[in-house]
Amino acid sequence: MSVGPSDGTPGGGGRTNLFSPVSVDRISEVIVEQVRLLIREGKLVPGDRLPSERSLCEQFGVSRVTVREALRVLEASGLVEIRVGARGGAFVTQPSSERVGKGLAELMTLASMTAGDVTEARMVFELGILPLVVERATEEDIADLRVLVEQGLNELENGSYTMAMSAAFHVRVASAAHNPAIEMLVRTFHGPMLMSLQQAHIAAPLMGPRGAHEHFELVEAIEQRDIDRARTIMTRHLQRTADRLAEYANPTLEDPGNEE
User: Fold this and answer.
1) What are the angstrom distances between the C-alpha of 236 and each of 36, 154, 195?
2) 60 vs 51, 149, 183, 188, CA distance in Å?
3) Cα–Cα distances in angstroms (integers) from residue 191 to residues 105, 109, 112, 171, in the given order
4) Is the pLDDT of residue 16 over 70?
5) What is the largest CA-CA distance in the chain?
6) Fewer beta carbons within 10 angstroms: which end of the chain, N or C?
7) For 129-147, what is the mean pLDDT?
8) pLDDT of 231 above 90
9) Residue 232 pLDDT > 80
10) Closest-CA residue to 239 (of 220, 216, 253, 257)
11) Among residues 73, 80, 78, which one has the least CA distance to residue 51?
12) Rounded (10°) CA dihedral 192, 194, 199, 203
């Protein structure tokens, strides 16, 4: 297809408004994309220092205001760190899983998903990574999980157990897979997971004791490297949450139980 004048002259095909004007306000975005591309291509790596603001202005042919706006965007994205002082400047960094996860979690929270959708995804994800957790969990992982279980049981006795504690336990289980991609994904999922657990708690206010004890059983199975038992416990654990949410969404269904 040839692209020509937009007034119907030969070569234009009678097309109008094929292109949109480029706003001067968008120039900073072009700079951001160039830096991102250089990072993806490995031409900029963590620790590299970007040229000075003055040099960037000259290279891009833009004002210092535009360069500063681009640097603010890159900093907010976790791609650069702005340091002050004699040895300051803009340095390329590697986004942490927490920063990436927070951004993705916000997008997921804004999306039109239900607590049931989240729980269904949890069943696929958490059951899927369980073999890795059982195989790779270290003594430190087991110790950390036991601390979380003990804290949960103590809070149950005090009547102050929260769904945030349950979510924290599941995040720590996933980190025992020792895969940075999995850890990033589960941290991303923390917000939606907490939302679904809180909604399940509304559906069954007495939830807690059963689930907290299942956390204890799961840690035992992981420590014993018993994948079949761990899978059975996790399936029962998550399925009850799914049933509770289904009851909440459709009150005409038979009550699946009032404890986690």
Assistant:
1) 44, 23, 20
2) 11, 55, 38, 35
3) 6, 7, 14, 11
4) no
5) 82
6) N
7) 97
8) yes
9) yes
10) 257
11) 80
12) 140
pLDDT at 136 exceeding the cut of 50: yes
Q: What is the distance, to the nearest Å, from the Cα of residue 82 to the centroid of all Cα atoms in its chain?
A: 24
Length of the chain: 260
Residue 80 gets the label, from left (phi > 0), alpha (psi -120 to 50) or beta, of beta
Distance from C-alpha of 221 to C-alpha of 64, rounded to nearest angstrom? 59
Would you list the DSSP string of 1-44?
-----SSS-TTSTT--S-S-PPPGGGHHHHHHHHHHHHHHTTSS
| Secondary structure (3-state) at 189 | coil
Distance, in Å, from the CA atom of 238 to the CA atom of 246, rounded to the nearest integer, reads 12
Q: What are phi and psi of 138, to 5 degrees?
A: -95, 175
Higher pLDDT, 249 or 25: 249
Q: At what angle do helices 97-110 and 190-203 cross, to 10 degrees?
A: 50
Distance CA 129, CA 231 (A): 10
pLDDT (0 to 100) of residue 260: 44
Q: What percent of the chain has pLDDT over 90?
A: 40
| CA atoms of 13 and 114, how far apart (whole Å) | 47
Residue whose structure tokens are 């500063």 = 68
| Interacting residues of 84 by C-beta distance below 8 A, sequence separation 6+ | none
DSSP letter, residue 49: B
Backbone angles phi, psi at 49, to 5 degrees: -100, 130
